[in-house]
Amino acid sequence: MSLLFAATLFLSAALLFWVQPLVAKMLLPLLGGTPAVWNTCLLFFQFVLLAGYAYALALTRWLSTRAQVFLHVALLIVAAVSLPVGLPGSAVEGVPEGGEPVWWLLVTLAASVGLPFFALSATAPLLQRWFSKTRDPRARDPYFLYAASNAGSLVALVGFPLVAEPNLRLAGQGRAWAAGYAALVLLLAACAFALLRSGPAEVNATAAKPRDEDDASSDDADNDADTETLTKLRRLRWAFLAFVPSSLVLGVTTYITTDVAAVPLLWVVPLALYLLTFVIAFSRGRLLDGRLADRLLPGAAILLTVVYLSGATEPAWFLVLVHLVFLYIAALACHRRLADDRPAPRHLAEFFLWVAVGGALGGLFNALLAPLLFDTIVEYPLAVVLACLARVPFGARKSRTTPGAQRGDGGGAALDDSNELRREEDDARSREERRARVLDVLLPAAFGVAVAVLTGVVTMLEMGSVERLAISLGLPLLIINHVFQRRPVRFALALGAVMLSTFLLTDGGANTLHAERNFYGVVRVMQDASNDTLRLHHGSTIHGRQFADPARACEPLSYYHPTGPLGSLFETFETRAGATAATSPHVAAVGLGTGAVVAYSRPGQSWTFYEINPEIVRLARDTNAFTYLRDCARAPAVVVLGDARLQMRGAPESHYGLILLDAFSSDAVPAHLLTREALDLYLSKLAPGGLIAFHVSNRGLDLHAVVGGLARDAGLAALVFDDPSFDNASGKEPSEWVVVARRPEDLSTLALKPNWQPLNESPRRRFAVWRDDFSDIISVFKWGG
Fold first, then answer.
1. In angstroms, rounded to a whole number, what is the distance separating the alpha carbons of residues 559 and 590?
2. Which backbone phi and psi does 735 adopt, to 5 degrees?
3. φ/ψ (deg, to 5) at 717
4. What is the DSSP letter of 217?
5. How many helices (H) and strands (E) does the chain have?
6. What is the number of other CB atoms lying within 10 angstroms of the CB of residue 433?
7. Mean pLDDT per segment of 10 residues, for the chain of length 785 residues?
8. Are 508 and 311 in contact (CB under 8 A)?
């Protein structure tokens, strides 16, 4: 019987976690490929999971097992009405333009997959509770089924990008998921039949009765040898130990997908590690037990802090690995503590409810509250500090009074003296511990002030960035690791103090003039005194510069510098436009940034910018920030707010002579803008003889291979110009651009320039063709840094 229940739980969890990336993948292109799409989806799924667990608790507490079985099977059948999984047409047409699309996203998720996900969410705790009522020898401790459940989740997450996505289109996956759902209903019915046939007397009772957690008159008394009660503190501890890994997994996912790419493979890896720690913790595996995780956690936190606060961006694979390793260690430490503190089976449903509460609060904090409360990514380092606090032992201190004294059995004066001595020792120990707790707060506070002073002094000294980093960050972290590690609270607060000091006093040698955070990420405007420029940052990446000097304000800088690939491209475009009337004078730019490229506009042209982030649009039009649009446009320039693929559909066919693809989320290009379907759209809007230019600069991915694969797949000609030159005085950044055209002769003028070379496949660069339902990140990852 245990095998039947385990198989049912495995399938239920697999369906539960298969549908998450499936639906998110459907929604991602509608909102510009931003990482916040996945975080908001996780928030929705966590709260529906919480609702499912609350429903399971209510059923197990107030209904007989027979009533539970019939009601839940009926719910699963009713939920099947909304299958197969897909997005309603009204939702696609109602994508909001501008503002925060979080509520639209949550409503769309509820309409498309809410009811089936709710029914599946309640299945795991219900099946475990039902199994505990059977006569199976393992029914006294059904928590091993939780490991089977998380194993199913893990298989589904790994299988989505590696098996389902490459072989099935999204519609096909929706039908396959519906078939799996039907199989689950049959398996659940088999479990119900086995339970009702072989269970104890309570199972066959026909009348429902309220089931209080203190009621031991039913079969609970058979399964529970004790009368365990739950305290509020214990429940809060469960929620806290679930909150920390939940917040961490969202923080790590945001970090990875912001600077690499928002694609399913990079969504599921952190979540898969998170679930793997659940499997290990509740199956008592020894791959890396909780005690070893506790010992490794401080060192991992120090390493992560160095990587995170140093602002390192390369090599991408190493940085990603550091974050994932920390997530694994911290989540395992927390989940192992949860497993060790699990209650008797009679409290199983409530235990998982509190675990779900913690998980949902983690999602709520990261996806909704943090963007409102903070203008930078504070929630991730805060979760790191909380993970270190999870090392604090929560066990109650036992009394040292002797049994004889407790019984009052007259042990004599010697025994009284012994007890008195023990009480004095306990009092002294308590006073010492109270002083230590006060120092746990005061010492980190003083340490944080000292680090702030040290950092301020170091920033004024003439020294290299490595030396400055070693003194202001490396030295304090070394002290923390060696002096504070044995006191978890002291260690965590001291680490938090160093993080806070670094955030407040280091800004990369520039002054922050403006910072704003919204659904699409963190945007900052900074003034660089070294070359008198304003810089636009999105996440960890510069998205453009402009000279503050009005005399030089119309010089396109950064990746758009006149001496770089884009300057060369516009020379060719102007030459061709003057030589033939067949070339359209209309230009489309996907991604606005500072608006620098409009400086290349000429009379007789018309320009259209497609930008999804309203904050970027506001800054580009703000006369106190960047003035390219206002002062440097020599042709009409309009800005269309919204995702480029959705908005460009309304442009006339064969309209644009030049299309610039320059959309990035921090350093990550939205994957749905580099797919076969996206290229088909661009070509339909491209005039005869027109050019499409792709900005492929990227620290982590070889996007040349993606554009080259698309060009070869569509039979297009392609040239590439990789410009590594950097000149801070003139405001130039290294950049890499690929230009494609329908015919080689359309690129003939550009091909005469020495820096433009044919884009060819090589043993080190294998072309990849991305589709809307598949993005092969691994094959284009820059493993060499």
1. 15
2. -150, 155
3. -90, 150
4. S
5. 27, 12
6. 11
7. 86 91 84 76 89 89 88 92 79 69 88 91 87 79 76 86 82 90 92 76 40 38 55 92 94 80 73 84 60 86 87 76 93 90 83 89 89 85 92 58 47 63 73 80 85 77 70 82 85 88 58 84 84 85 90 94 94 68 81 95 94 92 86 94 90 95 81 92 95 92 94 96 92 95 93 92 89 80 68
8. yes
Radius of gyration of the chain (CA): 30
Residue written as token pair 């506790």: 294
Q: What is the 3-state secondary structure (H, E, C) of 389-453?
A: HCCCCCCCCCCCCCHHHHHCCCCCHHHHHHHHHHHHHHHHHHHHHHHHHHHHHHHHHHHHHHHHH
Provide the pairing of β-strand 757-758 with 717-723.
antiparallel
CB distance 73 to 189 below 8 Å: yes
Give residue 2's Cα distance to chain centre.
35
End-to-end Cα distance, the chain: 51
Q: Give residue 317's region: left, alpha or beta (phi > 0; psi -120 to 50).
A: alpha
Beta bridge partners of 736: 722
Which helix (H) or strand (E) element contains residue 605? Answer: none
- C-alpha torsion 259→264→266→270, nearest 10: 130
Strand partners for 62: none
Q: Give the DSSP letter of residue 163.
A: I
Phi, psi values for residue 686, rounded to 5°: -90, 130
| Neighbour count for residue 202 (Cβ, 10 Å) | 17
Find, among 101, 25, 17, the residue nearest to 641 by Cα.
101
Tell if the pTM clears 0.90, that is, is over it: no
Contacts of 99 (CB under 8 A, 6+ apart): 614
Quote the tokens at residue 256: 């990875």
